[in-house]
Here is the input.
Amino acid sequence: MNPEVLLSRIRVVLCRPSHPGNIGAVARAMKTMGMSQLYLVEPKQFPDPEADTRATGAVDILERAVVTATLGEALVGSVYAVALSARQRDLGPAIGQPRDAVADLLAEAEQGEVALVFGNETVGLSNEEILHCQAAVTIPTNPEFSSLNLGSAAQVLCYECRMAAFAGKPPVRSQGATPFASPAATHDEVEGLIGHLEAVMTATGFFNPLQPGRLLPKLRRLFGRVRLEKDEVNILRGILASTQVRTEHGRKG
Amino acid sequence: MNPEVLLSRIRVVLCRPSHPGNIGAVARAMKTMGMSQLYLVEPKQFPDPEADTRATGAVDILERAVVTATLGEALVGSVYAVALSARQRDLGPAIGQPRDAVADLLAEAEQGEVALVFGNETVGLSNEEILHCQAAVTIPTNPEFSSLNLGSAAQVLCYECRMAAFAGKPPVRSQGATPFASPAATHDEVEGLIGHLEAVMTATGFFNPLQPGRLLPKLRRLFGRVRLEKDEVNILRGILASTQVRTEHGRKG
Here is the structure.
């Protein structure tokens, strides 16, 4: 696929950014590398003159930025997301190197919209947010001084995206298309499945919402790893629906 | 050679920087990637509080920075220098890609001190300065918006230096837990799950063994791809069993 088209499919999602200046710096970093889709989840202050100043010639990206209340909303319609995370999270995806992670991201962009997800400057992403992402990445830094700011981290990753998009040979993952393949499920379709499963598990008594334990994060991790296709989501929801009908029918009898 | 030693041999040389804030941003970018030797050729204003502010925890690099009157002085004792240049100069070295140029730089660092040379924010390096360098590099950018600032350009090149010094795999900090994982499920455990699922689907009427279609092969493909763990097989069979209990119970009622 055309490298510029691939780059245009990458959303940069900033979760709860505190400093408008950093939003501007990220917009500038994106635009220098040919990326344009900025999503802001609960920005502390936006729009803001400081963001415009730091963006310099990339104010158009700020003007088109999409502000959402949750990471889930920012990922609607996307098929793959990579989280920037300084540390490994329990149940979270294993943390990889930027170059490898970006190669995977670009490969997924052949199928649809993808996302690079950044956390708040101080506290990063929440564990729950990380579980919305299929992969995680850390930028390798000096162990004695790892203080990359948000703009610099975005610059490095956007640069890697551009390098990967133009690598001449599109990255080929070992899992290619197979005779059965259907298009990748979108984030919201997978969320629909998880919600459906939760309802069934609650109805059967397998899951107690008052004592949730780690069941839901474990299931979310499983679905995150498998990279479901649309067809598979439909099958799994069909199975779930069939158990519901049976249960209701049985109850009446 | 030890990667940290290689990184310690790279000088970052800023020629006639106009804005002290940029000097601070470069110091920070260097330190995050394990580099420490900053040379300033005729800085307009240095030292300066704005430089300290932008450097945050990298003020030590500013304190040890060497200020010189010419690029030649900043290169004394070095064996190789790469110039950042936005355009090809008459008689200047051919302009290459950052990754290739940095690989050469690190190879030369095995022999001695080397340098990455940046020009003034507005006018860049002079033709005469470029001729002090053995190689030249441009960071690839969006042709319609190539406005990388000095700090961002330094961040990208310092990151490439760290990647190259560690042969593409710099260690990432192993903070926190290892990813949650239970042992892989065995073939027979997965078969047990598929059999269980088939029984439930048959009981609910979702699956008709007389008209099987492609449902089972599709499910088998899904389970084959996800590489289930024991814990996950137990969860999924628990869910299936819970729907069975409910159905039976309902039937009796």
About this structure: Chain A has two domains: 3-165, 187-252. The mean pLDDT of chain A is 88. Residues 41 and 71 of chain A are 6 Å apart (CA to CA).
